[in-house]
């Protein structure tokens, strides 16, 4: 392959701009095409980022042989069909989180990725951030002894109307898929184990999405991870890893911060580890590196972790009575 | 009645000394007797607090007509039989938390209290503290809008050996009854509602007690309260009440602190409201006031709240597989 990876973006919304900004920062990566359902939106995005190709049709982008990798940045319910088509077209795929609406969809994508010899990764950008890497290193070094449990919250009092994606059941909205996924994915990342039990209680909004959820996951080593998530209240948004000899805390905004602290008794060490650019650059560089050396999944966001988190979210949704409907959950 | 309430203490351990210290601070309350299983311990306690009566037998204390009210400060499993005998002897009873090992026991004590026209209260001293009263006032004033949820943790890395009360199943040890009770009782106090669902996951120690528990309670208004508790890891030990317009936080050590904060957007107001003495004085004064005016339960710790919390703990223990045995759970 060329030493420069050529990217296309499907879904030129807010998150796509952030991705394009990060990609422009990364050597050996180039954004060349965008597809939207609206030619006007595609043109505006292409103009902003100086792209050669702007399509009002995802198929046209996938038919462009110059595009090697695709970043899918649509609302959640479009991730699966878009990723499926991209893999069938032989493109490497990075999907914004959550990778799919449910675990069965992602399992099918894993099959397709293997069949078509494509890299497939969920864009859990937080896992790559320097302060999260520092927390992982402290855990590996047993600086807090044996890990006992994790407690976190991720709640934002959005004031969007019912038509907004986050409140819209027809766009697979709600707290779990948008916010709770970070708590589950980072807990999974810290513990590196399979789950053995899940419990969830939640409250659905008048619009039918989960506005508040509290859940606990038990892992195979007996560790517990508990989190709260909400789209109607501002929460602490910290993540604490409690060990037998201390605590590691990521805060504020544990999923997109730069600060991590290690507490042992009364001694607290706090490190601020900023991002190189806007934080998305690390996942882009990891994806490109994997492709370059012929890997088809990332060690940082392996398929099994994405599957585990989606399986956990499926069970949380089952327990709180949230099903998005056959149209969006089909495989 | 005399305007001075005369007290006896059963179980002269560490907590009894704290209680005696607070009682000495309170006008219109006087400690006159102590009972222990050991005459030596009773004598030492009586000498320290200049008490007229020191017994090696609880029955002797209960037979003393001068004793009007009894504070039960034994290990948990002795609360119920001691309180039962005290009520039958016509004494007003304040029982260290948890009031009993299970809800059925406390329901029986409520019957006895009514039959014998005695005041009965669980010593949930935290509910009376000034900073908790401030939090309740902010809630009543809707300063954080509609309450959505509560998240708390109460974990202390004890380093006691297996023989210590906290690790000893034969003394009804473990995290829930000793620590988790505060999270449940203060959540109940903040929300003032009945529960509709409870979920718990936990890990039992080699000694058979709960060393870590994570649980969520759903209340009748849809609110959720989630907590973590542990006797093997130091936790954050904060309690956050999340509302639609802000957050109220009790920290550090939400059950025995003096600091409370109100956050609305970026605006944070923090108040430090110290105790008059050691914090136990408020429950003593409330008990004496209730008795003076002929009340038989406290508005701050009503029987229904103690029953609710014990019912929640029964369900938590059932889900994590912790039963102390017929000897201690019998009614």
From TrEMBL, chains A, B:
Keywords: Oxidoreductase, Signal. The keyword Ligase does not apply. Residues 6-122 form the Gfo/Idh/MocA-like oxidoreductase N-terminal domain. Belongs to the Gfo/Idh/MocA family. InterPro entries: Gfo/Idh/MocA-like_OxRdtase_N, Gfo/Idh/MocA_domain, GFO_IDH_MocA-like_dom, NAD(P)-bd_dom_sf. This is Gfo/Idh/MocA family protein. The keyword Signal applies. Residues 133-248 form the GFO/IDH/MocA-like oxidoreductase domain. PANTHER family: OXIDOREDUCTASES, TRANS-1,2-DIHYDROBENZENE-1,2-DIOL DEHYDROGENASE. SUPFAM superfamilies: Glyceraldehyde-3-phosphate dehydrogenase-like, C-terminal domain (SSF55347), NAD(P)-binding Rossmann-fold domains (SSF51735).
């Amino acid at each position: 392959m060329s030493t420069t990876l050529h990217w296309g973006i499907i879904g030129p919304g807010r998150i796509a701009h952030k991705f394009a900004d990060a990609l422009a920062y990364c050597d050996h990566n180039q954004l060349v095409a965008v597809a939207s359902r609206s030619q006007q939106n595609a043109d505006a995005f292409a103009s902003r980022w100086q792209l050669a190709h702007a399509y009002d049709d995802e198929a046209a982008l996938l038919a462009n042989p110059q595009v090697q990798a695709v970043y899918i940045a649509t609302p959640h319910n479009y991730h699966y069909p878009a990723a499926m088509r991209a893999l069938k077209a032989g493109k490497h795929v990075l999907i914004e989180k959550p990778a799919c609406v449910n675990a069965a969809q992602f399992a099918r994508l894993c099959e397709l990725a293997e069949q078509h010899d494509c890299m497939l990764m969920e864009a859990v950008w937080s896992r790559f951030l320097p302060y999260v890497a520092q927390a992982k290193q402290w855990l590996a070094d047993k600086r807090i002894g044996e890990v006992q449990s994790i407690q976190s919250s991720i709640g934002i009092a959005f004031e969007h109307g019912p038509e907004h994606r986050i409140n819209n059941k027809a766009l697979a909205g709600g707290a779990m898929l948008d916010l709770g996924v970070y708590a589950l994915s980072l807990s999974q990342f810290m513990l590196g184990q399979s789950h053995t039990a899940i419990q969830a209680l939640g409250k659905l909004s008048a619009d039918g999405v989960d506005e508040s959820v509290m859940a606990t996951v038990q892992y195979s080593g007996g560790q517990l991870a508990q989190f709260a998530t909400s789209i109607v209240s501002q929460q602490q948004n910290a993540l604490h890893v409690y060990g037998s000899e201390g605590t590691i805390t990521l805060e504020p905004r544990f999923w997109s911060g730069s600060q991590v602290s290690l507490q042992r008794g009364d001694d607290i060490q706090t490190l601020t580890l900023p991002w190189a650019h806007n934080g998305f650059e690390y996942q882009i560089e990891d994806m490109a590196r994997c492709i370059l050396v012929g890997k088809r999944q990332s060690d940082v966001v392996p398929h099994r972790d994405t599957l585990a988190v989606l399986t956990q979210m499926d069970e949380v949704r089952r327990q709180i009575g949230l099903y998005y409907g056959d149209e969006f959950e089909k495989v």
